[in-house]
Amino acid sequence: MNIGSKNKKRVVLPSRPDPPTVDQILEDINRAAPNDPVFSILEQTGQDSSRASDLDVELKFQQCCRFLELNEQLQEARGRLLRQREELKAAGEQLDRDVAEVKGQPL
What we know:
elongated
């Protein structure tokens, strides 16, 4: 039997503080010194460069534009293929009628 466990009192922890507001976070970032460790970590990982971020945004934008262009081309191609399918179906039906007509004629 463990005697020490009977004498332990339960510790009540204080409640958690409210999370900071966006304004508080922005104020904290703006007050941070340039040599703040967070900024040095970002430099080491290559995430500090706002220019790289701008290039990444531009690349994503160009990719989105290209995707929309390709999607429009695919929709147009789909429409053309549907029309061609109907034309082929009609041509096949006409061919079947012509073959049936030829078969019915005496030689």
